[in-house]
C-alpha cells in the first residue's frame, strides 16, 4: 500500500472516531483509544466484555478505569498498564494481567498490550490493542482458518448483515495492521535518521570499506581530515583503495593483517596523507562487520585527528631532551648519545670519538654585573657560535650554567678534535655586543681523546671536566687534553677543597702582617695583612688556597673572615698606640662583584669600631681587568664608605693610562717581578721609573714590593721611590711581632 494511501486511510480513520469505534466492536481483541492526558476516546465492545463493563468508559480516564485503587469493579489491571499508557511513548508492547471480578481468585490472565500512535486532526492519540497471550502466529492462523473456512461455506446464504459484519471485522484488522506497519516504519525512519545524524555530525571521521578494500562510505569529518571539500570527491578518489591516504604502505599492510587476525584494532596511530600532500597524525578504531553467513560483509573505522595531541607529545619529548634557553641538547640527551657512541665503538673497532667540555671564562661576572637577561643572551650567542664550528653529526649540549659539551662523532684521527677546539676558542674569544653592551668572554676547553676506550659516559665527562679545569687554571691556554696525571691532580684537588671547607668551619685561618716602610726616613708606613693557613701541619701558599677558594666560591666567607680578623687587630692596635698607620688588605674581584659586600664590610666596621680611613684594599691589576669593569661599582661604594684602594701587582695587567685615570684608587703597587729583574734587566728599572713618574702625574702613591737587598732599595730610593716592602725590611710576621714593631716604631 502506498504511503499516501496509508495516510489518507489513517486520516479518515480518525476523522470519524465514532465510526471507527464501531468498526472495532467487531474485533475479538480489546481496543482502547486515549489521548495524551489519559482521557479515553473510545473503548471497543471486546474490551468492555473483558472488563465486565456495562457502561461506555469514554470521557473517563485511563487512570480512573485501570488504576489500582479505582480499578473498575469488573476487573483488576496491573499498575504497569496505567504507567505505560500515560508515560511511555508508542509504539511499544507490554504484558498486562486482568483478573475477572466474576471469577475472583482465579489466576489472572496475561494479556499482550500493543500501544500504537494514533494521530487524529490536532491530537496524538494512542491506540491500545489487548489480546490474550499465547496467540502464536500458527494458532491464530488455525483459528482464522477454522473460524472462516467452514463458516463462509456454511453461511454463504446467510444474511447480508452477517457478511457485512465480517467485512467490518477484516477491515478493522487491516487498519490495525496498517497502523502497526506505519508505527514500525516510523520507528525505523527515526532510528535511521538518528544514525545519519551521528554519522554526519560526528567529529571523528567514519568510513566503511569492502573486503576488497574499496571505500563505500565516509562522513564529512573524514573528508575534511583528508583535505576534500565533499564526501563525494573523497569517495571517487579513494574508490580503488580505501587506504590510499595511508602515509606508509607498511602501515596499511599491518592494519590489514591485524583486522584479518583479530577482527578489530584499537588506537592504531598512523599518518594520513591529505589531498594536498601534507600529513596529519590520526588514531583509528576499526572492526570487521560480519554478514549473516559469518563472512566479512564490510569494515568500518572511526578515525580521530590527533595532530594536536601528537604535537603536544612531541613538544614534551623535545623539552625532556633539550635545553629550553638555547635549544641545544641537554645533559640527558648528551648522555644518551655518548652511550650510543660507546656501544658503536664496542661493535666497530675502527670507530672513535672525542668529547669537549667547555666553560665560559667570565660568565659569572657578566651575569652578576649586567643581569640575567644579558647573561641569557650571551649563552644563546655562545650556542650559535659553537654550532657554527661543528658538523651536523656532532652533538652540542648545554649542561646548565655556562657549561657546554660537544661530542665529536666518527673521528678520523685526534687532530679534528683539536682543530675544532681551537676554532671554538677563537670564535668565543671575539668580543661581541649584547643589549648595546660590548662583552668579551673567553672559554676554557677540556678534551678527552680516545673516548671510545671508556666504559661509561660519566667517566668521559668527569675527565673532560678535569681537563677543562686545568685549561682554566693555566690562563691563556685555549684547551687541555686530558691525561692520567690530571686525574691524580683532580683527586688531590677534591681532597684539598674538602679540607678548605673544613678549615673555614674550624677558623683555621690566621693573619701575618708585613710592614710597609717609608724608605726615605725608615719610618713605618703601615702593614699588608696576608692570610695564612696550616693544613695537615704544613703551611699552604695563599696563592694556591686563595685561587681554590675563588674557584669554589669559598672566597666570600673566607675573605670576610679575614677582614673581620684584621679589623679586630687594627682596633686593638688603635686602642693601644693611638698612632696613625694604614693596614692593607688583599681583596679578590669575586668579593667586589658581590652586591652585599659593601654592606658586609660596613657591618664589620661597625662591630669593630675601625675607622675606614685606616684600611686600604688591594686589588690586583689583572683581576680588575679580567672582571671587565664589573668591580668598579663595588670599589666606588667602598670608597664612599671611606676605604682607600691600591692597584696591586701593577705592570702585569696591561691597564691603559686612560683607564687608570678613571679608577677610584689612591696608590699603585709595582709588581715584584720588576724589582727582581731590575738589576739584571735595565728595562725593568726603566719601567719602574716610568711607573713612578706616572704615579706622580696622577697624584698616586707608589709602593714597591719584593725588595730583598739593599742594592735594590738604594736603586729605588735613587729613582725617587718612597714606599717599600720586602724581606729586606721585614718578612710577614705574626700579630705579636707586629705589635712589638708598632710599640717601637717611629711614625
Ligand atoms: P701579594 O698581594 O702580592 O702579596 C705579597 C706576596 O709577596 C706575599 O706572599 C708576601 O709574603 C710576598 N713577599 C713580600 N715580600 C717579599 C720579598 O721580598 N720577596 C718575595 N719573594 N716575596 C715577598 P704570600 O703571603 O705568599 O701571598 C701570596 C698572594 O696571596 C698575595 O700576593 C695575594 O695575592 C694573595 N693573598 C694573600 N693574602 C690574601 C688575602 O687575605 N686575600 C686575598 N684575596 N689574597 C691574599
Ligand atoms: Ca698585595
Ligand atoms: Ca703584590
Q: What does it look like?
A:
- The protein is of the alpha+beta class and 747 residues long.
- The protein contains 28 helices and 27 strands.
- The strands form five sheets. An eight-stranded mixed barrel has the order 19-20-22-23-24-25-26-27, surrounded by six helices. Strands 2-1-6-5-4-3 form a six-stranded antiparallel sheet, with helices on both faces. It has a five-stranded antiparallel sheet with strand order 8-7-11-10-9, sandwiched between helices.
- It is elongated and about 160 Å long.
- The structure holds ligand C2E and calcium ion (2 copies).
- Overall geometry: elongated
DSSP E strands, number: 27
Question: N-to-C terminal Cα separation, in Å?
Answer: 136 Å
- Give the overall average pLDDT: 86
Most strands sheet: 8 strands, mixed, barrel
- Low-confidence region ranges: 1-15, 100-104, 135-150
Strand content: 15-25%
Which ligands, by name, code or SMILES, are bound? ligand C2E, calcium ion
* Strand order within the widest beta sheet: 19-20-22-23-24-25-26-27
Rg over alpha carbons: 52 Å
Treating each run of at least 4 consecutive H or I residues as one helix, how many helices? 28
Q: Helix- and strand-based class?
A: alpha+beta
Determine the fraction of residues in helical runs and give it as a percent range: 40-55%
Amino acid at each position: 500500500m502506498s504511503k499516501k494511501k496509508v495516510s489518507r486511510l489513517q486520516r479518515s480513520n480518525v476523522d470519524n472516531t465514532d465510526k471507527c469505534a464501531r468498526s472495532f466492536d467487531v474485533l475479538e481483541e480489546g481496543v482502547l483509544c486515549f489521548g495524551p492526558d489519559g482521557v479515553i476516546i473510545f473503548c471497543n465492545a471486546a474490551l468492555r466484555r473483558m472488563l465486565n463493563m456495562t457502561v461506555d468508559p469514554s470521557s473517563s480516564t485511563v487512570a480512573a478505569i485501570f488504576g489500582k485503587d479505582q480499578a473498575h469493579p469488573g476487573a483488576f489491571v496491573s499498575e504497569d498498564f496505567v504507567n505505560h499508557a500515560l508515560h511511555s511513548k508508542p509504539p511499544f508492547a507490554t504484558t498486562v494481567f486482568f483478573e475477572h471480578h466474576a471469577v475472583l481468585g482465579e489466576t489472572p490472565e496475561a494479556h499482550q498490550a500493543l500501544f500504537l500512535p494514533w494521530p487524529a486532526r490536532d491530537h496524538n492519540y494512542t491506540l491500545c490493542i489487548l489480546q490474550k497471550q499465547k496467540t502464536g502466529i500458527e494458532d491464530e492462523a488455525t483459528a482464522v482458518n477454522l473460524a472462516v473456512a467452514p463458516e463462509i461455506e456454511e453461511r454463504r446464504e446467510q444474511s447480508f448483515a452477517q457478511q457485512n459484519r465480517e467485512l467490518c471485522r477484516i477491515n478493522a484488522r487491516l487498519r490495525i495492521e496498517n497502523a502497526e506497519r506505519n508505527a514500525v516504519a516510523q520507528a525505523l525512519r527515526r532510528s535511521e535518521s538518528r544514525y545519519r545524524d551521528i554519522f554526519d555530525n560526528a567529529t571523528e571521521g567514519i568510513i566503511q570499506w569492502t573486503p576488497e578494500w574499496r571505500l563505500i562510505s565516509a562522513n564529512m569529518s573524514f573528508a575534511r581530515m583528508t583535505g576534500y571539500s565533499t564526501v563525494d570527491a573523497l569517495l571517487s578518489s579513494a574508490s580503488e583503495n580505501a587506504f590510499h591516504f595511508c602515509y606508509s604502505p607498511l602501515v596499511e599492510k599491518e592494519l590489514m593483517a591485524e583486522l584479518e587476525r583479530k577482527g578489530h584494532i584499537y588506537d592504531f596511530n598512523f599518518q594520513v596523507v591529505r589531498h594536498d600532500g601534507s600529513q596529519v597524525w590520526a588514531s583509528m578504531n576499526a572492526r570487521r562487520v560480519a554478514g549473516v553467513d559469518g563472512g566479512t560483509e564490510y569494515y568500518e573505522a572511526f578515525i580521530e585527528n590527533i595532530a594536536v595531541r601528537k604535537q603536544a607529545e612531541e613538544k614534551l619529548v623535545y623539552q625532556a631532551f633539550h635545553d629550553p634557553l638555547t635549544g641545544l641538547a641537554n645533559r640527558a640527551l648528551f648522555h644518551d648519545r655518548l652511550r650510543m657512541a660507546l656501544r658503536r665503538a664496542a661493535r666497530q673497532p675502527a670507530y672513535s670519538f672525542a668529547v669537549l667540555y667547555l666553560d665560559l671564562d667570565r660568565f659569572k661576572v657578566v651575569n652578576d654585573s649586567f643581569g640575567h637577561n644579558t647573561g641569557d643572551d650571551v649563552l644563546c650567542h655562545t650556542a650559535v657560535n659553537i654550532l657554527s664550528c661543528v658538523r651536523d653529526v656532532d652533538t652540542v649540549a648545554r649542561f646548565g650554567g655556562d657549561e657546554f659539551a660537544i661530542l665529536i662523532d666518527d673521528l678520523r684521527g685526534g687532530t679534528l678534535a683539536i682543530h675544532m677546539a681551537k676554532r671554538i676558542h677563537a670564535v668565543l674569544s671575539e668580543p661581541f655586543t649584547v643589549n648595546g653592551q660590548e662583552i668579551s668572554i673567553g672559554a676554557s676547553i677540556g678534551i678527552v681523546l680516545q673516548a671510545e676506550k671508556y666504559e661509561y659516559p660519566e667517566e668521559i665527562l668527569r675527565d673532560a671536566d678535569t681537563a677543562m679545569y686545568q685549561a682554566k687554571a693555566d690562563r691563556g691556554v685555549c684547551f687541555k687534553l686530558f691525561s692520567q696525571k690530571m686525574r691524580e691532580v683532580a683527586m688531590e684537588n677534591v681532597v684539598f677543597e674538602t679540607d678548605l671547607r673544613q678549615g673555614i668551619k674550624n677558623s683555621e685561618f690566621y693573619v701575618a702582617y708585613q710592614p710597609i716602610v717609608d724608605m726615605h726616613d725608615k719610618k713605618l708606613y703601615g702593614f699588608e695583612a696576608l692570610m695564612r693557613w696550616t693544613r695537615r701541619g704544613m703551611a699552604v701558599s695563599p696563592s694556591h688556597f686563595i685561587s681554590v677558594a675563588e674557584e669554589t666560591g669559598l672566597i666570600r666567607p673566607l675573605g670576610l673572615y679575614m677582614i673581620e680578623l684584621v679589623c679586630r687587630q687594627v682596633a686593638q692596635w688603635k686602642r693601644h698606640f693611638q698612632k696613625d698607620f694604614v693596614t692593607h688588605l688583599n681583596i679578590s674581584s669575586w668579593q667586589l662583584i658581590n652586591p652585599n659586600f659593601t654592606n658586609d664590610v660596613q657591618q664589620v666596621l661597625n662591630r669593630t669600631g675601625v675607622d675606614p680611613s685606616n684600611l686600604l684594599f688591594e686589588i690586583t691589576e689583572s683581576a680588575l681587568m679580567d672582571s671587565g669593569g664589573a668591580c668598579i661599582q663595588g670599589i666606588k661604594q667602598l670608597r664612599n664608605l671611606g676605604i682607600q684602594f691600591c692597584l696591586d701587582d701593577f705592570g702585569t695587567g696591561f691597564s691603559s693610562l686612560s683607564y687608570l685615570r678613571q679608577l677610584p684608587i689612591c696608590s699603585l703597587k709595582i709588581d715584584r717581578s720588576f724589582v727582581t729583574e731590575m738589576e739584571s734587566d735595565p728595562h725593568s728599572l726603566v719601567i719602574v721609573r716610568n711607573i713612578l713618574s706616572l704615579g706622580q702625574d696622577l697624584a698616586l702613591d707608589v709602593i714597591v714590593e719584593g725588595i730583598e737587598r739593599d742594592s735594590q732599595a738604594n736603586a729605588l730610593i735613587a729613582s725617587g721611590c718612597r714606599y717599600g716592602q720586602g724581606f729586606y725590611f721585614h718578612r710577614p710576621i705574626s700579630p705579636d711581632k707586629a705589635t712589638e714593631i708598632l710599640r717601637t716604631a717611629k711614625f
